[in-house]
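User: Just a sanity check before I run the rest of the batch. Below are the structure tokens for the first item. I only need the designed sequence back.
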């Protein structure tokens, strides 16, 4: 069915963003998570083998695919992969099968150097209503006048507005389409914010409190394991694509709150 749909649309560029994207849901539904994230990617790659119109493919995974180090450094594309829970592990699996197909089936085809993996930071923006995500949860509490519970106040994330990595995906897709990217063994790309956007959860909460009134408490029960510090090094995208994250965290949060007020 998927192959039929792709052939009918006759695409030149394919963006694969379909996923089960939530860490906590992956603990509750691990089989569904692996089936969607790993097998879903595998099915798509298998379909692409026979579609001659395609000239560029972007497989979007996550910044959580890296094996956790204890040095609080920013992860770069060549760092070792390694999931610690169902969500990140399923995304690592998606990257492994993508690498397998690139080397096994596309290395000597028209799609050589035209399939890439994209890893973004923690995105925020209007329209995100997912559960157990910090900014959407804050907005729900503001709208419903309820008290917010936060899980990990000192966890650090590379926060960025969703429009920034999307611009990166578009630039990468176009350069692949125009054959302006030389292949190497690192076909993954980080699209993360600048260092000053690496902030703790409680810093994001306190910043939004400057503009919106809401109360919060800290949930001290550790129900699930989550990465404590996550930072991205996006030097490769900056040097080879001319891409940078343009909005700082304050602008990203302001735009997200404005979107919510416009509803």
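Assistant: Here's the designed sequence for the first item:
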């Amino acid at each position: 069915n998927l192959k039929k749909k792709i052939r009918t649309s006759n695409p030149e560029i394919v963006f694969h963003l379909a996923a089960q994207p939530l860490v906590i849901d992956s603990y509750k539904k691990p089989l569904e998570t692996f089936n969607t994230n790993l097998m879903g990617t595998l099915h798509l790659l298998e379909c692409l083998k026979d579609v001659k119109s395609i000239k560029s493919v972007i497989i979007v995974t996550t910044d959580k695919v890296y094996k956790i180090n204890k040095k609080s450094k920013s992860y770069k594309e060549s760092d070792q992969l390694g999931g610690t829970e169902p969500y990140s592990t399923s995304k690592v699996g998606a990257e492994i099968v993508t690498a397998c197909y690139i080397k096994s089936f596309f290395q000597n085809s028209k799609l050589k150097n035209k399939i890439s993996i994209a890893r973004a930071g923690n995105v925020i923006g209007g329209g995100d209503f997912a559960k157990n995500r910090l900014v959407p949860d804050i907005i729900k509490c503001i709208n419903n006048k309820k008290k917010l519970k936060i899980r990990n106040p000192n966890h650090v994330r590379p926060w960025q507005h969703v429009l920034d990595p999307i611009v990166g995906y578009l630039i990468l897709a176009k350069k692949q389409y125009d054959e302006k990217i030389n292949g190497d063994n690192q076909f993954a790309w980080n699209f993360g914010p600048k260092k000053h956007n690496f902030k703790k959860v409680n810093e994001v909460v306190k910043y939004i409190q400057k503009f919106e009134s809401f109360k919060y408490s800290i949930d001290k029960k550790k129900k699930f394991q989550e990465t404590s510090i996550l930072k991205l090094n996006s030097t490769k995208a900056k040097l080879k694509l001319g891409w940078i994250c343009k909005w700082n965290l304050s602008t990203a949060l302001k735009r997200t709150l404005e979107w919510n007020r416009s509803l």
